[in-house]
Design a protein that fits this description.
The complex is a heterodimer of chains A (about 70) and B (about 800).
Chain A lengths: L3 H24 L8 H5 L12 H7 L2 H4 L4
Chain B lengths: L1 H6 L4 H9 L19 H7 E3 L5 E7 L5 H13 L3 E7 L4 E6 L6 H10 L4 E3 L3 H36 L5 H22 L1 H13 L5 H21 L6 H34 L4 E5 L6 E5 L8 E4 L8 E6 L2 E4 L1 H4 L5 E3 L4 E2 L4 E2 L4 E7 L5 H15 L6 H4 L1 H20 L3 H14 L3 H20 L2 E3 L2 H7 L4 E4 L1 H5 L5 E7 L3 H9 L5 H15 L7 E7 L3 E6 L2 E6 L1 H8 L8 H8 L3 E7 L2 E9 L6 H10 L3 E5 L4 H11 L6 E2 L4 H12 L4 E5 L2 H9 L2 E4 L5 H6 L2 E3 L5 H36 L5 H21 L13 H6 L2
Parallel strand pairs in B: 16-23, 16-25, 23-24, 25-26, 26-27
Antiparallel strand pairs in B: 1-2, 2-4, 2-5, 3-4, 6-7, 6-8, 8-14, 9-12, 9-14, 10-11, 10-13, 15-27, 17-22, 18-19, 19-20, 20-21, 21-22
The chains are: A mainly alpha (about 70), B alpha+beta (about 800).
């Protein structure tokens, strides 16, 4: 039974590691927004090539941009 | 918008829309140039440079509401060369953008977002928001640590409760619990000790004090017993208390934050740009309003609000000054007339020379009065805090009595039972009672389009009070409408033809009212030789007939008659407090039209309901006294309760005067109400109000009409009833605990069963009560629709 004197401090050490991980995640903003990430994971991740800005600027003109959504 | 999506192969958007089940929504694009975003002054104010040469900023995006929006915004960010990162926070409706200025300009990104139907605004509340975010992170960290400690101390307590064990193990577990509890008290629970100290110092006792007493008692007596190797240790109870109470604190903080965030977003909608006319070549450029200096010439187009105080250089127009003065009728203005920031240019383009900007404007000075008024407001002690002094006194006396009473038997037993009493009365359920009930109510209210900043406002709203209404935009619809037509109907078609091309508010009201009625009857004739006189009227030839539409003075002048003010039409309309407009055909006055600001449909019934709730309804308006008296008459209010022609300063004084006799709720929407809103017991700002009034108000309504005001007062009363019920529950639980402790029967085991049970009762009672019930109809809530719920 005296193994308890070793096992319990060890368990506490593991707990403190978990607490440390939790504090790290709080400090890095993991708990700031609880809504968006849940929706973000629904989105597929397909890569497309980047466009030059002039092209985008042309697209963003009101004539082509206005319409129904 | 479809074109943009297709070009980029982003049609998956439509699949996502279906996935979310969102309703079809017309995207709104503004076609603005967003040039001001590239200005160095703007970047300095709103954007942050990063060490690698990139910049980041936060933009508030109108209209984001669902998973498809996240996908679009973040996707477009990655597709565009030069945009490093785009991250959307759907709850706060803000996007964080990081871009490379060498490759792309911020205005290009903003135009892109606009084309997608998300008009972008610089986010103005970033600093206050960061501060709140830091506070919230600290609290979440404390909760997490307190939870971990609680779980481990409980494990050891379980071992101790479970029965006999060798003394060395028992000592090990007891000392282990002590060591673990120290950080829970010293770091996690510090908020309560700090609060208790502050409340003692200020003399205004609140809930933190009994909490601190309970925690201290548990920790001190547990430590004494651990060191002396005798009695109960209480550490599991203390650790649980800290954890549960911190959760209550977090709930409280969140409810305050949600409403504040929403108010700040509306701030971001205020015009951020002005059109500056360069002196040398007359070129017009969009610049941030912060860049405008006195002496600059600005262009203000029809429908825009004026960005600075100044004088009109060129142009004639009608101004909507209701924001500033409460006057609902448009004011005519021409060259040389002064204009104020915050007023809206209604009719045609103006060029103004700025004289005062920023805080030096009339609006800016009013805002200072607002801040002052809210500082002066007397604090109202929260319901739960009012019982604290008695609660603490009773608990201390009972503990002392227990200690003395049991001391005749055994001194140690007396101390044991006295400390047990102090611990068991630690107001866990009492501490949760108010925040949970209020949080549940505020959450429900938000679902009904009523945003409440802070729970104390709900408590104050539950009392009967004097309800002061501003007229424009609250009781009435806040726009000019044709309300009465006198005389021959045949002139309607002629008037319509003459007024059709004008942008003047009266002309537009004519078109809105007559357009439908006339169009069906006959083909509308076209007017020739239309000539307008600012502040007068219109003259035109329609089908060979000479038509004159205008004010009595103007028409009299054109017909060359001495005066028309005594004409029966004019007298009848003036008696009803309507603005008269005369119509003359071929030199004869044939008809007249009365213009006014119509009452809201729900105004009369809502006023009755408010009176039934025991409130006294009054009108306090900056509008013309005759108009206010007429509105009051139609609502069935006594003449003494209606006051017109009040300046912002008068309003503040009237509120302060009424405050001497009891609670005052002010309902208003304009900047001219802001100081009064801040001074009132509770300020309620209505739908479509000015940003200034949103900042000053405790509650704001995102649904039009005054029915939400009635709903708010009813809901507040129900919420306070729930709070009272919760307090009774927890006091009942405390009575049981005290009885057990005084009779010496209370053990930590019983305590740790009683306490969560009491808290659970309070939680259930709070979240199951229907404080702001959904109406039986399926009227959609504006707020819910915006959040995409």
């Amino acid at each position: 039974m005296s193994v308890l004197f070793l096992v319990i401090p060890l368990a506490l050490l593991i707990v403190s590691a978990a607490v440390g991980a939790f504090l790290w995640s709080v400090r890095h903003g993991q708990f700031d927004d609880l809504k968006t990430p849940g929706l973000r994971m629904l989105l597929d991740d397909t890569e497309t090539k980047a466009r030059p800005p002039e092209d985008v600027a042309a697209l963003a003109k009101p004539e082509s941009g206005a319409g129904e959504g | 918008m479809h074109a943009v999506l297709h070009e980029h192969g982003l049609t998956q958007y439509y699949d996502l829309i279906q996935l979310e089940g969102a309703k079809g929504r017309r995207a709104r694009t503004t076609g603005k140039t967003y040039e001001e975003l590239d200005d160095a002054a703007f970047l300095q104010l709103y954007a942050k440079p990063r060490p690698d040469g990139q910049w980041s900023t936060e933009l508030y995006l109108e209209g984001v509401h669902c998973a498809a929006c996240i996908w679009l915004v973040e996707r477009m960010g990655r597709e565009v060369d030069g945009v490093v990162d785009a991250r959307l926070d759907i709850g706060k409706q803000t996007a964080e953008l990081t871009w490379d200025p060498a490759k792309i300009q911020l205005s290009t990104i903003a135009r892109q977002l606009d084309a997608l139907g998300y008009p972008a605004h610089p986010f103005r509340g970033a600093e206050a928001r960061d501060l709140r975010r830091k506070e919230e992170r600290a609290l979440i960290a404390r909760i997490g640590v307190a939870g971990a400690i609680m779980a481990n101390v409980m494990l050891m307590a379980l071992a101790l409760y479970s029965g006999r064990m060798e003394p060395e193990f028992e000592a090990f577990f007891r000392w282990g619990s002590l060591v673990l509890t120290i950080p829970s008290i010293a770091w996690c629970g510090r908020v309560f000790f700090r609060g208790a100290l502050a409340s003692l110092r200020s003399g205004a006792l609140h809930m933190d004090l009994p909490i601190a007493i309970g925690l201290t008692a548990g920790f001190v007596w547990g430590t004494v017993n651990t060191v002396m190797a005798r009695g109960e240790i209480w550490f599991d109870t203390v650790a649980t208390l800290v954890f549960l109470l911190l959760i209550g604190r977090w709930v409280q903080q969140r409810q305050r934050r949600a409403a504040n965030d929403a108010a700040e977003l509306l701030f971001s909608l205020a015009p951020s740009t002005a059109r500056l006319v360069r002196q040398e070549d007359g070129e017009v450029r969009e610049v941030p309003v912060e860049r405008v200096k006195p002496g600059d010439v600005l262009e203000v187009r029809a429908g825009e609000s004026i960005p600075a105080d100044g004088v009109i250089e060129t142009g004639e127009s009608a101004l909507d000054t209701s924001l500033l003065t409460g006057e609902s009728r448009p004011i005519e203005a021409g060259p040389g007339d002064p204009v104020h920031a915050g007023t809206v240019n209604l009719a045609s383009m103006l060029r103004i020379r700025a004289e005062a900007t920023g805080t030096a404007t009339r609006v800016g000075r009013l805002m200072q009065a607002v801040e002052e008024a809210s500082r002066r407001r007397a604090p109202v002690v929260a319901l739960a805090d009012r019982i604290v002094p008695k609660f603490v006194a009773v608990v201390l006396v009972l503990a002392l009595a227990t200690a003395i009473g049991w001391a005749f038997v055994d001194v140690w037993a007396g101390l044991d039972h006295a400390f047990a009493l102090l611990i068991v009365t630690c107001p866990c359920a009492l501490g949760l009672a108010t925040p949970l009930a209020i949080h549940a109510a505020i959450g429900r209210a938000a679902g009904r389009g009523i945003l409440v900043k802070g729970g104390d406002a709900l408590e104050r709203l539950s009392h009967p009070a004097v309800v002061l209404f501003d007229k424009t935009g609250t009781l009435t619809q806040g726009r000019t409408e044709l309300l009465q037509w006198l005389g021959a109907d045949e002139a309607k078609a002629l008037v319509l033809a003459a007024e059709r091309s004008s942008a003047h508010p009266i002309a537009q009201a004519f078109v809105a009212a007559l357009g439908g009625a006339v169009a069906g009857e006959a083909p509308v004739a076209t007017a020739q030789r239309v000539s307008q006189t600012t502040g007068g009227g219109v003259e035109a030839d329609v089908d060979g007939r000479k038509v004159l539409v205008g004010s009595p003075v103007y028409v009299a002048q054109r017909l060359q008659v001495p005066e028309l003010a005594t004409h029966p039409f004019v007298q009848e309309l003036v008696a009803q407090a309507l603005t008269p407009v005369l119509i003359a055909v071929d030199g004869q006055v044939t008809s007249a039209a009365g213009f006014g600001d119509p009452l809201r449909d729900d105004a009369e019934q809502s006023v009755r309901e408010l009176q039934a709730l025991g409130c006294e309804v009054r009108i306090l308006s900056g509008d013309h006294p005759a108009v206010v008296a007429e509105v009051g008459r139609r609502l069935g209010l006594p003449e003494a309760a209606c006051r017109g022609g009040a300046t912002p300063e008068d309003k503040l004084a009237a509120v302060e005067e009424a405050l001497k006799h009891g609670f005052v709720f002010m309902v208003g929407d304009g900047v001219n109400d802001a100081a009064a809103l801040a001074a009132a017991t509770v300020g309620i700002s209505v739908h479509g109000g000015a940003e200034a009034s949103l900042a000053a108000a405790d509650v704001f309504l995102t649904r039009p009409g005054i029915q939400p005001v009635v709903e708010l007062l009813r809901g507040a009363r129900r919420a306070v009833r729930v709070v009272k019920r919760n307090i009774l529950f927890s006091l009942g639980y405390n009575t049981v605990g005290v009885t057990l402790a005084m009779s010496g029967l209370l053990t930590p085991l019983i305590g740790s069963i009683l306490m969560p049970f009491a808290s659970l009762t309070v939680v259930t009672s709070s979240y199951r009560s229907r404080t702001f019930p959904k109406p039986s109809g399926t009227e959609p809530s504006v707020w819910a629709a915006r959040r995409g719920r």
